[in-house]
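Hello,

Our lab assistant flagged a job as stuck in the queue for most of the afternoon. It eventually completed. Since we weren't sure the result was trustworthy after the delay, we are filing this so someone can double-check. Below is the sequence as submitted and the structure that was eventually returned. Let us know if re-running is recommended.
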Amino acid sequence: MICFNKPYMSGKELDYVSEVYRYGHLSGDGPFSHKCHQWLEHNTSTHKALLTHSCTAALEMAAILLDLKSGDEVIMPSYTFVSTANAFVLRGARPVFVDIRQDTLNIDETLIEAAITDKTKAIVVVHYAGVACEMDQIVNIADKYRIKLVEDAAQAIMSTYKGRALGSIGDLGCYSFHETKNIIAGEGGALLVNDPELVLRAEVIREKGTDRSQFIRGEVDKYTWNDVGSSFLPSEIMAAFLWAQLECANDITQRRLALWQNYHQLLEPLASQGLLCRPSIPSESQHNAHMYYVILNPLIDREKVLRQLKNYNIMCTFHYVPLHSSPAGRFYAKVSGTLENTDKLSSQLIRLPLWVGISGEQQQFLVNKLGDILKGLSS
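-- returned structure --
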């Protein structure tokens, strides 16, 4: 069987988890958390990195930091995971969905300005598949209208835009370390605080609304409740596991990029025959090979393709069901313009297995079977 995903272990994860037990510090913000914070700050050039128990938690912290209130609007793509919208709905804001680009499946930067109203408080971009949105134009729009910019970089650790780490360009950035991501901790995430004025409040929100972090640093003589917040800290066990992954982040990324490029070459004949489209990577974007997807010819039935691949024990899958078509999306959000690309491309996309350890032979077998199926269904 060619499974869809297989979590990668560097070999040091369990040793570091054992160290946590020996130290006797299992709760958050211990030595391994600090190492992870320092690595993230150094490698992204962000002002402050804060580990969270999920990327969802990081997004929820971002929403609190924006001081959203009922009736405020937040612009984002509909083609994303539910947490991107949910975090802001929980604060009373309304997502405003904008269509995606056909080449990268990222938010179409040329449509954002038309969605801005006097209620708009933020733009949330999603770097789909670890490929950068067109950040220069989006930053200019956010600056022009004096609205905050949040990067949902859940899939984008180790990716860059014009040399800048994704997640470090907007006011706030959010990473995921879920087991399906490149760098993992089972669950887990991080908030990157790029606006220095938000750092102290981010620490308070993360610590249940208290100034406990300042107390631990000796900056106050006691800690107390100062703001809204919640328990967003991950355990030190998770941080220890994550540290083993971060130590190998460059190696993991390079190995994934080699596998991604192998798919890209193997699939070129099928693309030339018009059976599918391969991913497009803009020249200013250095991606992290988070996923390899194909867009099927619209005349080919995706469900039939997936079923036939499964008959060969090849586990491929589609991705998001667009949020605007969901019951909650229709209730809590609104749409700006048409979402033609979102509707069309989401129904034609297939994600291929990509994990460190998949062999070239497995990739070749998959592509051969995929080609046979597509040719059979298009004849």
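-- support follow-up --
The delay was a queue issue, not a problem with the job. The result is valid. The first strand starts at residue 48 and ends at 52. The chain has a mean pLDDT of 96.
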